[in-house]
C-alpha cells in the first residue's frame, strides 16, 4: 500500500478494495487518504481523499457507494460523521450523521441497510446498534447487542449479522437478525430464447405473489433495477421483447403476509436473436 497506516477502514466495490483513513505512523495523526487496490493487476491507485481525516472508523458499501462512518479525529474527538464515496465520480458527499458518536465500531450490510454496532465513546463501552438506510439518508435505532464491547468485527450470512469478539467480549459471538428479514427465494434460474428470457424458481412457502426485478446491469437492487420490475407474478415468467445481444439480470422476491422477502441470488442471460 502506498501510504503506511493502521486503524483504517476498508470496503469493496466492483472488485477493487478501498483503504480509507487511518493513522499515519509518521505523524501519529488521522488521515483522509483513500487508495484502491486492484487484485487482478496487483496495482494501487490514489483516489480523492476523505473530507474528514479520521481513524478507528468503519466502512461499508451499498449499491456501489462506500460509506465511511464514525471514528476518531486527531485530538481525541469521537465522531458521528458519515461521508459517502462514489468510485465512478471519484467524489465525496456528506450524509446524515450517526446518532451516537463513537470509534472502534463495526458495520455490516443486510438487504441494503448498514447496521453499525458497538464501539467506544468518551471512555464508555457501547452495545449500540444503529441502522443507516442510504436510500432515504436516515438512521434508526435498533435492538442493542447483549454484550457491551468495542474493537469487534462483524459479518453477514443469510440475512443475519454476527458480531464477533472485541474488548469486553473476546470470544463472544452474538447474532442479530432484523425483524423484517425473510429468507430469499431459492432455485432461481433463467434460460434464453429468441428475444426473450424465461425466469423460474422454487415455490416459496406462504407466497401470495412474486416480484421480478431486472436490469441490463449486474448488481440488481430495488434502487438499481433500471428496467423496473414485474409485480404480482404467480409462477415462472417469460420476459419478451428483448434486445438481441444484450445481457439481462434478474432477482426474484416473494410477497407474503409479512411483506417482501430479502433479495437473493441474481441470475443473468444473454438475449438470443430471432
Q: How would you describe this structure to a colleague?
A:
- The chain is mainly β and 274 residues long.
- The chain folds into two domains: 9-176, Neuraminidase (6 Propeller); 189-270, Immunoglobulin-like (Sandwich).
- Helix content is 0%, strand content 48%.
- It contains no helices and 27 strands.
- It has strands at 9-13, 16-20, 23-24, 29-30, 34-38, 43-46, 58-62, 65-69, 72-73, 77-78, 82-86, 91-94, 106-110, 113-121, 124-133, 138-141, 153-157, 160-164, 173-176, 189-193, 196-200, 209-215, 228-233, 237-240, 247-256, 259-260, 267-270.
- The strands form eight sheets. Strands 22, 23, 25, 26 and 27 form a five-stranded antiparallel β-sheet that branches.
Summarize the structure.
By secondary structure, this protein is mainly β. It has no helices and 27 strands.
What would the keywords be for this entry?
mainly beta; five-stranded antiparallel β-sheet; Neuraminidase; four-stranded antiparallel β-sheet; 274 residues; Immunoglobulin-like; globular; 48% strand; 2 domains; 0% helix
